[in-house]
Write a structure and sequence with these properties.
With about 190 residues, this protein is mainly alpha-helical. The protein contains 6 helices and 4 strands. The chain is globular.
Length: about 190
């Protein structure tokens, strides 16, 4: 989902067709159409819902078109296969840090057991998109620089991420993954 650089938050007026929140609503409705028989359209809706819930919780999927959601933001210093900020948040930030993948998944499972999400309501998708958008605009993400008018100024050239970037954002990515899983669970429970 792309919005103008001077945007302050995400609302339903930001998109009426072909954006992430609308896709979640569309596929949730498709999945819920016939609760007692599953057809190909519903199976496809289930697949897309899983994908869309992951996307809406990855901050750079709710950002700006002029840099392709961080795909054009190159960075230096990190020893990683990821070469741009979007790719880094999509893949390379996962399973990193001091935890092994197995320990990390166990930690996520423990956190899952301790938290809850409200029942599914369609209007929540705009809140989820706004959560990601607010993260995108935070200075720690190094995606843009806020100016005095409240616009998120596009960065030029390669950026240098701080040495503690991964550790600083590990908690955020864990929280976003948990929210995505919990919210998908609520959608499925309401739809099936």
């Amino acid at each position: 989902m792309n919005v103008p650089r001077n945007h302050t938050n995400i609302t339903p007026n930001d998109c009426t067709n072909n954006c992430l929140p609308q896709a979640i609503i569309k596929h949730q409705k498709e999945l819920a159409k016939a609760k007692h028989k599953v057809n190909w359209t519903q199976a496809q809706a289930l697949f897309f819902l899983g994908h869309w819930l992951g996307d809406i919780h990855q901050p750079l999927h709710v950002s700006f078109a002029d840099d392709l959601g961080g795909n054009n933001i190159k960075f230096t210093h990190l020893t990683t296969k990821c070469k741009n900020l979007h790719w880094y948040w999509d893949e390379c930030i996962l399973y990193k840090g001091k935890k092994s993948k197995k320990k990390w998944l166990a930690l996520l499972n423990q956190q899952w057991q301790q938290s809850t999400q409200p029942k599914w309501r369609q209007e929540q998708v705009w809140q989820w998109a706004d959560e990601s958008f607010q993260l995108v605009k935070s200075s720690s993400l190094n995606y843009c620089q806020m100016n005095n008018q409240g616009s998120c100024k596009k960065l030029r050239g390669k950026i240098k991420l701080p040495n503690n970037y991964l550790l600083q954002h590990q908690t955020i990515i864990e929280q976003r993954l948990l929210f995505a899983a919990q919210r998908l669970t609520k959608i499925l429970a309401a739809s099936l």
